[in-house]
Amino acid sequence: MKTLFYNIKELFQIRENNNAILKGSEMKELPSIKNAFLVVENDLIADYGSMENAPTNCDESVDVSGKMIMPTYIDSHTHIVYAGNREQEFVDRINGLTYDEIYQRGGGILNSVEKLRNTSEDELYHDASLRLEELISQGTGVVEIKSGYGLSLEAELKMLRVIKKLKENYPVKIKATFLGAHAVPPEFKGNQVGFVDEICQKMIPEIAQSGLADYVDAFVETGYFTVDETRKIIKTATQFGLKSKIHVNQFTTIGGIDMCVEENVLSVDHLEVVSDQDIETLKKGKTIPVALPTCSYFISIPYTPARKLLNAGLPLVVASDYNPGTTPSGNMNFVVATSCIKMKLTPEEAFNAATINAAYALEVEKGYGSITKGKKASFFITKPLHSIYAIPYNFGSNLIESVYLNGKKQNTPGE
Ligand SMILES: N=CN[C@@H](CCC(=O)O)C(=O)O
Ligand SMILES: [Zn+2]
Fold first, then answer.
1. pLDDT value, residue 415
2. Which atom of ligand 1 lies at the shortest distance from residue 295's CA?
3. Domain ranges in the chain?
4. Ligand 1 pocket, 89 CB below 6 A?
5. Cα–Cα distance between 177 and 149 in angstroms, integer?
6. Is 92 labelled a binding residue?
């Protein structure tokens, strides 16, 4: 089955070859063809080009006059399996408490842990599937989902099984990450060493054996997990064949980046507080920096110094961090807008950070992230637009008209 999309006002993120993540000034260019066609054969991109070369032998055709096409977003950092909400903490922060003060009172991550442990797998699946459907309608085609609100083997496995069920039931590509070291659960209070041992000796072996996780994560932060504890977790994960993606430098810089680069982890995520030394370290390694600007927006913390990272010639990825505490939104259009408005990325840089570069942060670059022959036909069609800049410019509007995943049109409220 071949479908021709014709009269595309502008077809974005065309890459005949993409062999490496875009770095520094390479991110300035977002290659496109104006007045273009795109041919989808079954679930794959078969051809594209200028309208004058459009084929005439397709089974179906879709008129895209006035509208634009972009490969779907790749959201490489989310926590969308969670129970309930943290609306009261949101109001508490408005009234002056900090994220840390709320945690010290037993709230924050531990609030979500208590709720998740008391919620059935079916209910977790139901709530997460509604979130996932919303993300798809907002243009996301690949998503990473973390555990980390269970913090016991049993509750972490429950979360990971929910993620597996989402993988089975939705056309969106999903990668699962085990985040056992998110906070110390109440039963290990005062015995953090014991909890790290539990993660390394019991949880990682069992979870690796189950095949339910693609990656391992930890929250390296003052008051959460130390650099040495996290190194131990990363090394254990490596022994069990799992790569790591690590939360670092959200509030303080304590050497997490040095350690992650030394251990060659896949990505370091957050980076709201980054020293010049951290940037020098990142330049020496292959670890991918991931910024989460809508987290900065929601809890009013500094934004990742994205321009500094790009000026240093580093690659950059942006992701949503969708979670109940620090970012209760996974709208990647808003992530792109916030990247432009607050981190001063150009729209071209922001779209590159949310598509092709993000594919590298989830190791899906062979199948996703650009309009390339042979990649999955996962893309969104905009409403009629003057230019693609409208997406970050009209930051509160839904400008996505339809979403195709693996060549199939999805339900979108935008239509
Ligand atoms: N900071 C660590 N983890 C999440 C927040 C978790 C929560 O507050 O529930 C984050 O990435 O922001
Ligand atoms: Zn996170």
1. 57
2. 12
3. 2-71+368-409, 74-361
4. no
5. 12
6. no
- Quick one: pLDDT at residue 17? 81
Top-tier CATH class for 2-71+368-409 = mainly beta
Distance, in Å, from the CA atom of 366 to the CA atom of 385, rounded to the nearest integer, reads: 30
175: buried, middle or exposed (CB in 10 Å: 19+, 13-18, 0-12)? buried
Q: Ligand 1: which residue has its CA nearest to atom 12?
A: 326
Q: Is 147 in the pocket of ligand 1 (CB under 6 A)?
A: no
Instruction: Please give the number of the atom of ligand 1 that sits closest to the Cα of 179.
Output: 3
Q: Using the mean position of ligand 1's atoms as its centre, give its distance from the Cα of residue 371 in Å.
A: 33
pLDDT of residue 18: 78
Structure tokens given for 25: 């000034």
Contact 84, 115 (CB under 8 A): yes
Ligand nearest to the CA of 220: 1
What tokens does 215 get?
């990656």
Q: Is 109 in the pocket of ligand 1 (CB under 6 A)?
A: yes
Q: What pLDDT is stored for residue 292 in this prediction? A: 99
Give the chain's residues under pLDDT 50: none
Give the fold, CATH level 3, of 74-361.
TIM Barrel (3.20.20)
